């Protein structure tokens, strides 16, 4: 897992870095208002991913039948059917979406993005199926090359169009490259077959993911839509920059963790001890990454904003740490969802996000009553805590594992978040509280580290391995 994880992490870092650099270039090239309009494309892309996300890339890893090429061909048929349904549906939603965004003149641009599901209908699932045997090469290739294609497309697109539409060209170029790269260095050939029984199985597996995606769309983009309507396109521009800086690292960790741990958890679903060790290890990883995001935003937030985006985006610096706190809590609840999915249960994130979605109307009310973005963020943080509690409780029951360690990590991280918010909006003396809380969280992670499972211990003499395990 560690060797595969290093390879997957490097690929995902390249993927995320290319997205980040692409958006930084756009932010530097465009006025803040134009960058805000470009952000509406990313909002619509989230909706597109929602409508076509029936989890086939995860089903082909989780389902033992995927070792049969004929079954993968039937999954391809189901995927094409999903694309043929999603594309016209999104085309029909282009104008209503433009009205909601307050950008009716951009309807034609939104219509072009409806072509993305048609391209994704021909993604080769063999790229993902190979992960069942720990072969991540094709997926690594896809991650390392597709986003850089989108990055490079920004320059001719801006030279040609000179406005926010450069972001649209970059997105289409990246999505097309990602689809084509799934057909590189894989065997057997791309097969297509249609089977009603498989389509029903895909629907049963995927409908919770689609509904969950709609909830995630409201959760992840509700704040930005509120900012656009309450504070205007310029505010959306710098707020989107902060969302990108805090959400992108969290997505990187979740994507890498799922790629690495889902195959291992699926293989050990019937072995309680091994499953628990992998689950606790993944929870440790998310907790440490979440803590790093909170501390990093507090220490370096203003410097990062100024360095990457320039002085015109400095109003966003005040909200970097609070949004990092919100995404830290969201990051921690990723591991329960992965554990539940290893047992074929895709409703865990749905139920957790139903709880989290209650924060959206609370955020609307907070923004309307106070006229401030701070109150909106506090409502989101409170809802994230509730969602993390729900995700853990449901996954632990479904997977039949202990949630004691996860619950301790959640409590410690919540206390760290409270101390961080006190520093941002209250007193710098709260560092005296945050530092020991952070140390306590790290000690909790260290206490659950299974040293005997590390690769180097397998090469030690048996007496030293026993001592290492006791340590």
Write a brief caption for the model.
It is a multi-pass membrane protein. With 471 residues, the protein is mainly α.
Write the layout of secondary structure elements.
Elements: H1 2-29, H2 32-52, H3 56-62, H4 69-101, H5 107-113, H6 116-120, H7 126-129, H8 137-161, H9 165-181, H10 196-231, H11 233-267, H12 272-309, H13 320-332, H14 334-342, H15 348-357, H16 359-370, H17 373-399, H18 404-425, H19 431-447, H20 462-470
GO cellular component, one term: plasma membrane
Keywords: Cell membrane, Membrane, Transmembrane, Transmembrane helix
Subcellular location: Cell membrane
Structural class: mainly alpha
Mean pLDDT: 80
Quote the distance from N terminus to C terminus.
22 Å
Biggest β-sheet: count, sense, barrel? none
Secondary structure: number of strands: 0
- SSE order, as H and E? HHHHHHHHHHHHHHHHHHHH
Beta-strand percentage range? under 5%
Q: Uncertain segments of ≥5 residues (pLDDT<50)?
A: 451-471
What global shape is seen?
Answer: globular
Number of domains: 2
Helix tally equals: 20
Protein name: Colanic acid exporter
Pfam families: Polysacc_synt_3
Organism: Sphingomonas mucosissima
GO cellular component, one term: plasma membrane
Describe this entry's structure for a reader.
It comes from Sphingomonas mucosissima. It is a single chain. The protein is mainly α. The chain has helices at residues 2-29, 32-52, 56-62, 69-101, 107-113, 116-120, 126-129, 137-161, 165-181, 196-231, 233-267, 272-309, 320-332, 334-342, 348-357, 359-370, 373-399, 404-425, 431-447, 462-470. The protein folds into two domains: 9-194, no CATH class; 208-451, no CATH class. It is built from 20 helices and no strands. It is globular and about 60 Å long.
């Amino acid at each position: 897992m560690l060797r595969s994880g290093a390879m997957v992490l490097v690929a995902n870092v390249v993927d995320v870095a290319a997205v980040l650099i692409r958006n930084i270039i756009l932010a530097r090239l465009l006025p803040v208002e134009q960058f805000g309009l470009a952000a509406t494309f990313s909002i619509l892309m989230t909706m597109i991913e929602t409508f076509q996300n029936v989890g086939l890339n995860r089903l082909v890893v989780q389902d033992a039948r995927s070792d049969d090429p004929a079954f993968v061909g039937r999954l391809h048929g189901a995927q094409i059917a999903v694309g043929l349904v999603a594309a016209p549906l999104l085309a029909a939603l282009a104008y209503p979406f433009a009205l909601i965004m307050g950008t009716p003149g951009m309807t034609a641009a939104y219509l072009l993005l409806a072509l993305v599901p048609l391209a994704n209908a021909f993604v080769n699932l063999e790229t993902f199926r190979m992960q069942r045997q720990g072969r991540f090469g094709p997926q690594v290739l896809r991650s390392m090359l597709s986003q850089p294609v989108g990055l490079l497309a920004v320059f001719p697109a801006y030279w040609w169009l000179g406005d926010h539409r450069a972001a649209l060209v970059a997105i289409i170029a990246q999505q097309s490259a990602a689809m084509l790269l799934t057909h590189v260095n894989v065997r057997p050939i791309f097969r297509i077959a249609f089977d009603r029984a498989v389509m029903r199985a895909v629907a049963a597996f995927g409908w919770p993911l689609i509904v969950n995606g709609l909830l995630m769309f409201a959760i992840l983009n509700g704040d930005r839509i509120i900012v656009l309507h309450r504070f205007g396109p310029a505010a959306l521009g710098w707020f989107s920059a902060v969302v990108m800086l805090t959400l992108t690292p969290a997505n990187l960790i979740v994507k890498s963790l799922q790629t690495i741990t889902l195959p291992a958890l699926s293989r050990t679903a019937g072995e309680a001890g091994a499953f628990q060790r992998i689950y606790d290890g993944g929870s440790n990883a998310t907790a440490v990454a979440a803590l790093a995001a909170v501390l990093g935003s507090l220490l370096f937030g203003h410097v990062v904003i100024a360095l990457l985006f320039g002085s015109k985006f400095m109003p966003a610096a005040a909200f970097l740490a609070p949004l990092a706190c919100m995404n830290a809590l969201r990051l921690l609840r990723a591991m329960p969802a992965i554990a539940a999915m290893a047992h074929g249960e895709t409703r865990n994130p749905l139920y957790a996000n139903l709880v989290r979605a209650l924060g959206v109307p609370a955020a609307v009310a907070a923004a309307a009553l106070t006229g401030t973005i701070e109150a909106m963020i506090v409502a989101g943080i409170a809802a994230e805590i509730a969602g993390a509690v729900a995700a853990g409780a449901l996954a632990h029951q479904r997977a039949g594992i202990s949630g004691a360690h996860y619950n301790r990590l959640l409590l410690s991280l919540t206390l760290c978040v409270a101390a961080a918010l006190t520093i941002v909006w209250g007193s710098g003396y709260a560092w005296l509280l945050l530092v020991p809380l952070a140390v306590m969280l790290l000690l909790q992670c260290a206490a659950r580290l299974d040293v005997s499972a590390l690769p180097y211990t397998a090469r030690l003499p048996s007496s030293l391995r026993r001592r290492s395990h006791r340590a």
